[in-house]
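Sequence, structure tokens passed on for absentees:
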Amino acid sequence: MNLLHSISLFTPLDAIAVAIWALSWLLIGLMIENPPNSRPSVSTLMLAYRHAWMQEMVTRQPRMFDSQILSSLRQGTTFFASGSMLAIGGGLALIGNAERLLGLARDLTLNTAPAVVWEIKILAVLLLVTNAFLKFVWAHRLFGYCAVVMASVPNEPDDPKARPRARKAADLSNTAARSFNRGMRSLYFALGGLAWLVGATPLIVAALVTLFVLLRREFASQSRLSLMQVET
């Protein structure tokens, strides 16, 4: 009964806004990871470059440059995982002290809904942040696996194990990057989800703006044009 009462505090527009928010998050992920062959996304273009990187690593001596690149990738995942964990802690602390948030809402002349409404809204955002944290942690783990496989690649390029192990390292790197990108998308939409604290209409606008930004970056950005340039 308490759950039903809490749900009844939201309007149909809230349900529509949350549906648009969630569907936008799911839709952009599918579009980026499964684009049409005629218009690949930046993420899919980078898959081939990671394979090319590992094939070049086989003949590169020494391989300090490759280890430095992988180290920088792992540092990036660590940074975002740590930031996500701090955000989760802050959000949980805010849920535990919703009265202060209600006071702020009154000061800003926002809709002074019951505390449970604010808690549910914050919890929805935290679900995406938590998903991002888990994706970043897994990406960090996969980059670690990639580092081990890279270290196992024989120094002799003609060794029959060199190319196959390089391909394995590339596959691990691509899987790690995919997990990292999913975490980033979750953070983007979590930030957009904060607009729900203001109202359902701002949430719809924020979700569509976030969707547009990600579509542009993946399918119509300058970086994509650079990757698409024919190499002569």
Q: What stands out?
A: Residues 125 and 190 are 5 Å apart (CA to CA). DSSP finds nine helices and no strands in the chain. The radius of gyration is 22 Å. The mean pLDDT is 89.
